[in-house]
């Protein structure tokens, strides 16, 4: 599924009203009946105008017709929701232009954007709860019983809200995370980190020191009451910073890890906190062993010891952040259940929705294939390990094909 700035350009004011009418209606209805769209969009031209707009919007794929037993109606597509979010970001001057997609995951699309000054930023579009069309057809019972049907729009919005709240809180405590700029619906705008994802790095001068930095980050999060929950080579971006120069005038580079991807963060008080904590630690251990042939001489760190450091050195507890920023307990539970469900049943999420184009890199495999965790061997820019020093994943200068958005 791609963002299509061209479609954004051509939306007439009436179509816009009708689109927002569908969005409003979908808060209470999975399929919004046509009469409700008419009511919500309150077009002067009456029902005929609404019907014309409905068919315009359906033609460009912002809404889709759904035949139900009881009534026919429409639902917002991902494209429609993307459109609404993009519109909101441009209104708030967070985005002026949209560039190319630099990553596609099962959980999100990552798109390069820029503001009016040409400053590059990243738009993360959450795609949580997008159930594969195949699994809808073959697995109806499963879908009926699980929260899988809880609504992709709702779940994706929760993921974006939670991620934005944690990014803001972590940033304010000085953690190395991107700066969150804006959130609308299922999307977030944040600063672009010019970096290599750790997974693309084949070699580092001093693995022990990078390892120590990453373990220190896990422990620092714990002090603030948090476990990242997906602390691995996909969610760590490595920046090179010049630390100084040596006697020969050569630059001394320092590798600085930046942490991303926060919808699954959990509290140190979570009932499964120890499992999540150990999993994060082990991800790093396993990766360093496999990639850099590095094994720490130190055991641990261990959850029990980390838990004792909660709040130490004046560390502010951050685990209540989501609740403090408008989340209800139910919302957190729904989101957690959806993330867990996806971990347990990735097969139900593998193909795109019927109206979406099928990802053309579906069967692409990670080169070294071993021990890849599910849900992550899906980045659009796969890099063979031996060419890891090229910034294959992130090539904004060459790739960026900025389309000016002129909305409405
Ligand atoms: P997902 O939930 O789909 O895993 P992530 O937030 O982990 O989404 O982003 C997916 C990929 O996009 C990352 O592995 C990274 O390569 C790239 N990416 C995400 N955010 C940024 C950013 N702020 N700057 C640069 N690259 C980013
Ligand atoms: Mg990720």
UniProtKB/TrEMBL annotation:
Gene3D superfamilies, sorted: Phosphorylase Kinase, domain 1 (3.30.200.20), Transferase(Phosphotransferase) domain 1 (1.10.510.10), Winged helix-like DNA-binding domain superfamily/Winged helix DNA-binding domain (1.10.10.10)
EC number: 2.7.11.1
Keyword Cytoplasm recorded: no
GO biological process: maturation of SSU-rRNA
GO terms under cellular component: cytosol; nucleus; preribosome, small subunit precursor
InterPro entries in UniProt: Kinase-like_dom_sf, Rio2, RIO2_wHTH_N, RIO_dom, RIO_kinase, RIO_kinase_CS, WH-like_DNA-bd_sf, WH_DNA-bd_sf
Catalytic activity, reaction form: L-seryl-[protein] + ATP = O-phospho-L-seryl-[protein] + ADP + H(+); L-threonyl-[protein] + ATP = O-phospho-L-threonyl-[protein] + ADP + H(+)
Domain RIO kinase positions: 67-308
SUPFAM superfamilies per record: Protein kinase-like (PK-like), Winged helix' DNA-binding domain
Pfam family, one: RIO1
Chain segments carrying region Disordered: 343-408
Keyword Calcium part of the UniProt annotation: no
Keywords assigned by UniProt, alphabetized: ATP-binding, Kinase, Magnesium, Metal-binding, Nucleotide-binding, Serine/threonine-protein kinase, Transferase
GO MF annotation, one: metal ion binding
Annotated Acidic residues bias: 350-373
Necessary cofactors: Mg(2+)
UniProt family annotation: Belongs to the protein kinase superfamily. RIO-type Ser/Thr kinase family.
Name of the protein: Serine/threonine-protein kinase RIO2
Organism: Zalerion maritima
Biological classification of the source: Eukaryota, Fungi, Dikarya, Ascomycota, Pezizomycotina
């Amino acid at each position: 599924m791609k963002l299509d700035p061209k479609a954004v350009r051509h939306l007439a004011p009436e179509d816009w009203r009708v689109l927002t009418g569908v969005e409003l209606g979908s808060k209470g209805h999975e399929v919004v009946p046509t009469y409700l769209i008419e009511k919500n969009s309150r077009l002067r031209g009456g029902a005929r105008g609404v019907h014309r707009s409905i068919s315009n919007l359906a033609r460009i794929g912002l809404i889709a017709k759904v035949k139900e037993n009881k009534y026919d109606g429409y639902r917002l597509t991902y494209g429609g929701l993307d459109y609404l979010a993009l519109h909101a970001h441009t209104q708030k001057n967070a985005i002026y232009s949209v560039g190319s997609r630099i990553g596609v995951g099962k959980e999100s699309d990552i798109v390069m954007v820029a503001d009016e000054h040409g400053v590059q930023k990243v738009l993360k579009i959450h795609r949580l709860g997008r159930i594969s069309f195949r699994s809808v057809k073959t697995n109806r019972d499963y879908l009926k019983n699980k929260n899988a049907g809880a609504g992709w729009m709702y779940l994706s919005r929760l993921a974006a809200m939670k991620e934005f709240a944690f990014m803001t809180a972590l940033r304010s405590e000085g953690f190395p995370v991107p700066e969150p700029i804006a959130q609308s619906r299922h999307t977030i705008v944040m600063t672009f980190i010019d970096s290599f994802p750790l997974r693309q790095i084949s070699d580092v001068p001093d693995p022990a020191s990078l390892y120590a930095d990453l373990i220190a980050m896990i422990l620092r999060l714990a002090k603030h009451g948090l476990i990242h929950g997906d602390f691995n080579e996909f969610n760590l971006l490595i920046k090179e910073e010049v630390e100084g120069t040596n006697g020969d005038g050569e630059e001394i580079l320092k590798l600085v890890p930046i942490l991303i991807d926060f919808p699954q963060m959990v509290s140190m008080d979570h009932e499964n906190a120890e499992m999540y904590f150990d999993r994060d630690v082990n991800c790093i251990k396993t990766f360093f062993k496999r990639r850099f042939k590095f094994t720490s001489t130190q055991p641990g760190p261990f959850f029990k010891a980390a838990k004792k450091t909660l709040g130490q050195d004046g560390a502010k507890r951050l685990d209540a952040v989501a609740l403090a920023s408008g989340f209800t307990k139910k919302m957190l539970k729904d989101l957690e259940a959806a993330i867990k469900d996806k971990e347990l049943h990735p097969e139900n999420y593998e193909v795109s929705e019927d109206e979406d184009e099928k990802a053309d890199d579906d069967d692409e495999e990670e080169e070294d294939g071993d021990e890849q965790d599910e849900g992550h061997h899906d980045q659009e820019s796969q890099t063979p390990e031996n060419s890891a020093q090229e910034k294959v994943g992130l090539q904004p200068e060459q790739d960026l094909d900025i389309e000016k958005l002129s909305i409405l």
